[in-house]
Amino acid sequence: MPDLVLSNALLVLPHETVTGSVRVCDGRIADIAQGGGVLPGAVDCGGDMVMPGLIELHTDNLERHIQPRPKVDWPHASAIIDHDAELAGVGITTVFDAMRVGSVPSGKARYTAYARRLASELLDLRAKGALRISHFLHLRAEVCSETLIAEMAEFGPEDRVGIVSLMDHTPGQRQFRDTSKLKAYVMGKNNFSEADFEDHVANLHSLRSRHGDDHERAAVAEARRFGAILASHDDTTADHVTVSAAHGIRLAEFPTTVEAAEACHAHGISVMMGAPNLIRGGSHSGNVAARDLAERDLLDIVSSDYVPGALLMAGVMLGDLWSDMARGVATVTRAPADAVTLSDRGRIEIGARADLIRVARIDGAPLVRGTWVQGHRAA
Length: 379
Fold this sequence. Notes:
By secondary structure, the protein is of the alpha/beta class. The chain has helices spanning 61-66, 76-89, 115-127, 148-152, 179-190, 194-226, 238-247, 258-266, 275-280, 290-295, 310-322, 325-330, 334-339; strands at 4-12, 17-25, 28-34, 43-44, 49-52, 54-59, 92-101, 134-142, 161-167, 229-233, 251-253, 270-274, 301-303, 356-362, 365-373, 376-377. It has 2 domains: 1-52 and 345-379, Urease, subunit C, domain 1; 54-341, Metal-dependent hydrolases (TIM Barrel, Alpha-Beta Barrel), CATH 3.20.20.
């Protein structure tokens, strides 16, 4: 007997959408049949879309659950379980949980290390079977910091580190090349005076000058030790992308200009943008709009960034924009899977993992009616 049969569905296949049903055995897709009607014992999807489970490569959502308010450290086991359930509920079946490595424990705008402890807690809950979906780690390596090398040394190949992204938040370049945007963000978040902000900027420039190059080389080497995919973060110029390509980077997170996105494609680097940027029509820091890249055929992958439900919304929105739902959904399923070499998921194909979601549209907005991970109901 099959584990699961979803029938009378609009199946979002790798390159087309067809009416049909999908049968699951032993956690894998065993059969795909075209045609309407409801098979005996099947879930009647009523014409809803059935698509692969979403694959999230970059989300800060776990950090939001750990610290729901400033200076509040929520009990971590509860936060991790709630984060996992939230993702399952919006159709995400594989996640690369983003955790910053590289801290600045001195100074007024200090921030301390947390990634090793949080990763151990998450992996322990996974080993105990407490989590509904598949979790990997995404280490966001902040080169403009004091402690990056020591923090990365605490991780190893056994830690499911799938992505290491090189981040450089030195004021005046990349995401915050417009320092007025940085000023508004930092002063608002930390209640800084003008003098406090100037001291903060000077400290970051000093850190970048003293440690930046060594940290970048170390992060690249550690990614190789973990067996992780390397990603860039906020490339702005063609020169940035040339450096990224020399490091062996395969994924560009949130390039800030059309120039950088075009250079990424020239080097065979996949371009990922944030779903909130696409949905809101631009980035909070004034960088290039994701829709602009989509209209230029420069957008390959979408991440939810800080709004989990935005991932599905963005994939469907792109399907509408391109008049090709299979292509839009691929940006949140097949394309991210391919970018991190997870060939067993992100597509409805015979033999693939049965990570599936059933999606209705209510007034145009996508609604997840069911999430299955390896054929078992997760939400």
